[in-house]
């Protein structure tokens, strides 16, 4: 028999050694939004910085972070461990749930609007609810919380089930048990959540009066003195008897739920939190991860998303006349700005030949975890004069990239970073008419690939805001040979303003390009430009 200790060590090493191989579209997307929290190309931290930032209205005293954390809890709290229903599935976006007494306030709608706008085919609204909590805690002083992706957005509201402050202790213990948490875990979760925000006069006028405070125009009586920051003040202030937490010292004892919950084990848990900021932080990391991973039965979450140390990003390959142009970035995770670092890219073509090593200029530094970690980004052949692209002979094509950082080859243990050159957007795509707006998309298909279908992909929303991908088929063009016979065109005329990515079905497998194109980016079709592109 394997002793328990070595078994758990084994699974530790097993888990920490599992790094996925790039590219993997869903994991890449989840990894980016999870780890590039404050990058100019996206990341949720832009919505919450500074940490007491409040987007909706001019008021002070509220914070988006607090709304996001409360939203995650109220979305999850419908879970029923017995029948597997409810859990973190973005059902809180339904007005039927928001109108329930257990979900008083406009913080849910404010939050949901942001996450609906950020969802993609790879990152569900529910994953964003989880990431909203994680990004808030990590950006605003809290611990790193393990994140898994793959949540599925509910198609309808869940049963009610969020605890309310006027309920008694037994009801709260029973409610958390139904959600899957013990009494001790309940104390922890409430303290972790109530490190942020407070109770608003607008929502609980009997508990919180108008405060007449120019620094708190929304009249939110905060749970602790640092309402936009993760720390154990909620516990130290409670233990020292100085707390102003309205659910502890409220005039009406019926609604003092934090007082009943925090004291329910003789203050043992709260004392441990007050005594040690580290104990509080690590307990919250574990409990909040379990909270956001509480999903309806049947939903399969991914592994914990670890950062890729070397990650290509926004890689785009297009056919531009008689050349393939490769552009993009590579991110060196958790690396600071370093003028002496050298980064280069080397390409492999279809015959297995390696290109020369092209130097990659430094592009930018991004921050994550509230500035505790920076990442250094390098661009593919960025030049001030021309487009940031490497030129590739279409006949040779490209199959792989490798990066060379300070002389060391980074290629995912020899696998390389795969690039698909079989189906690419062509810059011969152009607008045929301005009024009404019409444009032709040309997709260049590598000769010999023989796809069953080539199509434009458009992300659309169903009637409950879930992203679905609509496919619009292209047909092979009559003027079909391009780029020295290496590629043929498939084309379609479109008349709408959407952005499209390109997809194809090749030998029963669907492939999809990362980059999106819209009719607005196309230049007018001129006979000169068109004829120059067809080299038959
Ligand atoms: C018995 C369990 C709980 C009760 C009775 C409770 C009650 C409340 C109440 C009455 C408010 C004020 C809402 C408003 O003013 O509109 C509130 C706010 C909040 N709750 Fe809880 N809560 C509980 C558990 C939790 C948990 C487990 C979390 C997260 C882990 C959490 C996170 C928050 C946050 C962040 C706020 C501040 C919202 C803001 O300022 O906008 N709560 N809670
Ligand atoms: C509001 O905050 C500022 C800066 O922290 C402080 O100087 C001022 O005294 C506060 N005003 C009130 C009414 O508390
Ligand atoms: C205290 O709060 C409870 C629950 O909201 C309410 O029913 C009761 O009337 C309140 N008591 C007083 C004295 O306001
Ligand atoms: C818990 O601590 C608070 C604050 O010091 C105190 O008022 C309360 O009586 C304590 N409760 C228990 C059950 O010890
Ligand atoms: C960043 O790198 C340092 C060592 O340079 C390491 O201690 C730390 O854990 C890393 N942080 C993350 C989030 O990977
Ligand atoms: C890099 O980009 C410039 C400007 O577009 C271009 O002239 C040059 O040929 C490119 N270098 C390579 C190696 O593709």
TrEMBL record:
Q: What is its EC number?
A: 1.11.1.-
Which residue stretches, if any, does this entry annotate as coiled coil? none
Plant heme peroxidase family profile domain residues are 47-331
- Tree of life domain: Eukaryota
- GO MF terms on file? heme binding; metal ion binding; peroxidase activity
Q: Does the keyword Metal-binding apply?
A: yes
The signal peptide stretch is 1-19
Q: Which UniProt keywords apply?
A: Heme, Iron, Metal-binding, Oxidoreductase, Peroxidase, Signal
Gene Ontology BP annotations: cellular response to oxidative stress; hydrogen peroxide catabolic process; response to reactive oxygen species
Q: Which Pfam families match?
A: peroxidase (PF00141)
- Stored Gene3D superfamilies: 1.10.520.10, Peroxidase, domain 2
Q: Which family is annotated?
A: Belongs to the peroxidase family. Cytochrome c peroxidase subfamily.
| PANTHER family, alphabetized | HEME PEROXIDASE, THYLAKOID LUMENAL 29 KDA PROTEIN, CHLOROPLASTIC-RELATED
Q: What does the UniProt function comment say about this protein?
A: Destroys radicals which are normally produced within the cells and which are toxic to biological systems.
* Name of the protein: Peroxidase
Task: Tell me the organism.
Answer: Favolaschia claudopus
């Amino acid at each position: 028999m394997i002793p328990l200790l070595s078994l758990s060590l084994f699974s530790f090493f097993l888990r920490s050694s599992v790094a996925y191989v790039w590219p993997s579209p869903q994991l890449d997307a989840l990894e980016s939004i999870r780890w590039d929290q404050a990058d100019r190309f996206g990341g949720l931290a832009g919505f919450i910085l500074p940490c007491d930032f409040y987007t909706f209205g001019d008021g002070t005293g509220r914070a988006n972070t607090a709304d996001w954390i409360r939203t995650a809890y109220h979305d999850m709290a419908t879970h029923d461990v017995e029948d597997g229903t409810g859990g973190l599935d973005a059902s809180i976006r339904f007005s039927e749930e928001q109108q329930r007494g257990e979900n008083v306030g406009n913080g849910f709608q404010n939050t949901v609007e942001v996450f609906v706008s950020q969802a993609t085919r790879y990152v569900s609204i529910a994953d964003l609810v989880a990431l909203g909590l994680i990004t808030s805690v990590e950006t605003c002083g809290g611990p790193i919380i393990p994140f898994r992706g793959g949540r599925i957005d509910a198609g309808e509201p869940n049963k009610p089930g969020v605890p309310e402050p006027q309920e008694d202790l037994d009801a709260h213990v029973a409610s958390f048990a139904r959600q899957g948490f013990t009494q001790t875990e309940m104390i922890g979760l409430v303290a972790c959540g109530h490190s942020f925000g407070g109770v608003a006069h607008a929502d609980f006028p009997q508990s919180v009066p108008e405060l007449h405070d120019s620094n708190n125009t929304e009249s939110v009586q905060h749970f602790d003195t640092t309402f936009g920051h993760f720390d154990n003040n909620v516990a130290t202030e409670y233990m020292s008897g100085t707390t102003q937490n309205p659910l502890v010292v409220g005039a009406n004892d019926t609604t003092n739920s934090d007082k009943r919950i925090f004291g329910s084990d003789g203050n043992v848990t709260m004392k441990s939190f007050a005594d040690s900021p580290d104990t509080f932080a690590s307990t919250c990391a574990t409990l909040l991860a379990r909270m956001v991973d509480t999903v309806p039965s049947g939903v399969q979450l991914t592994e914990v998303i670890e950062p890729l140390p070397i990650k290509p990003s926004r890689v785009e390959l297009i056919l531009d006349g008689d050349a393939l142009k490769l552009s993009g970035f590579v991110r060196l995770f958790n690396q600071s700005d370093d003028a002496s670092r050298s980064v280069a890219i080397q390409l492999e073509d279809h015959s297995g030949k390696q290109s020369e090593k092209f130097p990659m200029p430094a592009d930018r530094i991004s921050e994550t975890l509230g500035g505790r970690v920076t990442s250094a980004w390098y661009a593919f052949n960025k030049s001030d004069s021309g487009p940031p692209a490497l030129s590739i002979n279409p006949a040779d094509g490209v199959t792989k990239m490798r990066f060379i950082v300070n002389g060391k080859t980074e290629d995912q243990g020899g696998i390389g970073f795969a690039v698909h050159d079989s189906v690419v957007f062509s810059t011969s795509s152009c607008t045929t008419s301005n009024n009404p707006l019409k444009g032709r998309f040309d997709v260049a298909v590598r000769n010999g690939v023989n796809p069953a279908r080539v199509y434009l992909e458009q992300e659309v929303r169903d009637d409950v805001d879930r992203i679905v991908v609509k496919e619009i088929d292209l047909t092979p063009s009559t003027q079909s040979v391009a780029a020295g016979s290496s590629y043929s065109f498939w084309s379609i005329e479109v008349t709408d303003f959407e952005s499209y990515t390109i997809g194809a079905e090749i030998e029963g497998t669907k492939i999809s390009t990362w980059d999106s194109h819209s009719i607005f980016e196309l230049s007018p079709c001129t006979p000169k430009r068109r004829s120059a592109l067809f080299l038959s």
